[in-house]
Design brief:
mainly beta, 3% helix
């Protein structure tokens, strides 16, 4: 399956992989990943930015507490959300697909899409890996991944 690409062509893309295969790329130097907690049914969101080949978790927020969703002591309560700024650096995100909860939403300048609308249908328990595309070594002789123009 060839990878689809969305977003402006002049921005370093993030790549979405399933079982090591590139399924989609999104030209987004910053993005928000959001999900609904399976028990509490409240929104959890994390805002990331690319720093070279690293994902930096700049801001996290949760609408309420409970069932493993306790915000850290540095979180600030604003309106219905707890917000904090972890500044955690990660090489990748690994997200498990489940039919028992709402799909993850990936938002960037220009849009929001569910992960399965970007990568296609997934079996239960499939892992979607999110990485900076420049962190993926292309196969020998292959051209590096570039956003579509």
């Amino acid at each position: 399956m060839s990878a689809g690409s969305v977003g402006p062509p002049d921005v370093d893309p993030i790549c979405l992989l399933v079982a090591g295969a590139l399924r989609a790329s999104v030209a987004a130097g910053e993005f928000t990943l959001a999900c609904q907690h399976s028990v509490q049914k409240t929104r959890w969101a994390e805002h990331y930015r690319l720093d070279g080949a690293t994902l930096v978790l700049d801001t996290a927020s949760v609408e309420g507490t409970g069932a493993g969703m306790e915000p850290p002591s540095v979180a600030v309560h604003r309106g219905a959300e707890w917000i904090w700024h972890p500044q955690t650096r990660l090489p990748e995100l690994r997200l498990t697909h489940s039919s028992y909860v709402r799909d993850y939403a990936l938002c960037w300048t220009g849009g929001c899409r569910t992960l399965t609308s970007l990568v296609g249908p997934l079996p239960e328990g499939a892992v979607i890996t999110v990485r900076a595309c420049n962190a993926i070594a292309p196969p020998a002789g292959a051209e590096p991944v570039r956003p579509a123009s």
